[in-house]
């Protein structure tokens, strides 16, 4: 098999690593808006931003509850992917604690995050990458099949206030590896499914 025999999978992907502090949630929302504008997917910004906000909030909370003494080493990772006919919003944190969907009372001030994600996403789940920690992901229908021509865009860096991006450290490296693991796993699965469909 040569490189000419391989059909590339149409894929848009971007990731970010942030300090696990409350301000990271706003930065994660900005990350969604920035990339979806570049990818011409503006019609999905509001839903994806809501999902990212909820997942990032949970990741920041889980990170700080698990190890409140080492705030410099606390990192969350966010990743956006458009592949085939779906959008994925993913958030990594270093803990393996599974988030639980709650059914709060009407008077409760919190606890509705995963209920909201469940209501607007096609599906959501948890992925445990080989690098450790967990990725909570949610899938949204794109509404059309992604074509290679949709995947050409100019890279424009996202400018964030100082102190929000995670500094290079073992935690940042772990987040980077975990998100790449998820990206490769999903792309390989899509590639396999595409080949099986083409073979039939």
UniProtKB/TrEMBL annotation:
Domain Histidine kinase/HSP90-like ATPase: 20-138
Origin: domain of life: Bacteria
Xref: CDD domains: HATPase_RsbW-like
Xref: Pfam families: HATPase_c_2
InterPro entries recorded: Anti-sigma-factor_SerPK, HATPase_C_sf, HATPase_dom
Keywords: ATP-binding, Kinase, Nucleotide-binding, Serine/threonine-protein kinase, Transferase
GO molecular function: ATP binding
Name of the molecule in the record: ATP-binding protein
Organism, as annotated: Streptomyces gilvifuscus
Lineage: Bacteria, Bacillati, Actinomycetota, Actinomycetes, Kitasatosporales
């Amino acid at each position: 098999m040569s490189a000419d025999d391989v059909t590339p999978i149409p894929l848009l992907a971007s990731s970010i690593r942030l300090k696990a502090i409350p301000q990271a949630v706003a930065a994660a929302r900005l990350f969604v808006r920035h990339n979806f504008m570049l990818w011409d997917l503006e019609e999905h910004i509001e839903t994806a931003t809501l999902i990212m906000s909820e997942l990032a909030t949970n990741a920041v909370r889980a990170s700080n509850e698990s190890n409140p003494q080492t705030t410099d080493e606390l990192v969350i990772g966010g990743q956006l992917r458009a592949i085939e006919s779906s959008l994925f919003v993913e958030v990594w944190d270093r803990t393996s604690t599974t988030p639980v969907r709650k059914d709060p009372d009407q008077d409760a001030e919190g606890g509705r995050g995963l209920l909201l994600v469940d209501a607007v996403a096609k599906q959501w789940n948890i992925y445990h990458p080989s690098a450790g920690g967990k990725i909570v992901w949610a899938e949204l229908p794109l509404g059309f099949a992604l074509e290679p021509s949709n995947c050409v865009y100019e890279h424009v860096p996202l400018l964030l206030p100082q102190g929000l991006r995670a500094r290079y450290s073992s935690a940042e490296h772990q987040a980077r590896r975990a998100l790449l693991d998820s990206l490769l796993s999903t792309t390989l699965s899509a590639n396999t499914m595409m080949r099986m469909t083409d073979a039939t």
